[in-house]
Each structure stands twice: as C-alpha cells, then as structure tokens.
Write a structure and sequence with these properties.
The chain is an all-alpha fold. The protein has one domain. Helices cover 75% and strands 0% of the residues. The protein is elongated, with a radius of gyration of 21 Å.
Length: 72
C-alpha cells in the first residue's frame, strides 16, 4: 500500500512540476511522470490479479445463484 501512495505522489508531483516549469525541467518532469504512471499501472495490475486469483480459489460457492431464473 505504501508503494501505491509513493507512485501516486511522484506522478502528481511530476505533473505539477511540468505545468509550472518550462524547458528541460518540464521534459524531465514528464519523463518521470510517465515512468511513475507505468510503474503504478503495473503495480495495480499485479495487485488486482493476485487478489482476484486468491478470491476465486478460496470461494467454493457459486456466486451466480442470484442471476439464475427460478424453474418454470
């Protein structure tokens, strides 16, 4: 969770620096922001699939029972 906060903080700070500055600093801030964005995306993707896989393996009950129609 801490890495998520760090990635979001770096991304937001780099966007702020890119908006208020010009020249090389703006380009550097955009590069750092892009790296933080892709690291954040990769981190969230990995976390999502770990949670979904563990939830699917742990649940033995059928969660789609409420979607089925009653017998006619």
């Amino acid at each position: 969770m801490m890495t998520l906060i760090i990635y979001v903080g770096i991304f937001m700070l780099s966007i702020y620096v890119a908006v208020v500055s010009h020249g090389y600093i703006m380009a550097l801030a955009l590069v750092v922001g892009g790296i933080a964005f892709f690291a954040l995306q990769r981190h969230l993707h990995k976390y999502y699939f770990e949670v979904v896989k563990s939830d699917e393996m742990d649940s033995d009950s059928d969660d789609d029972d409420h979607l089925r129609l009653p017998p006619a």
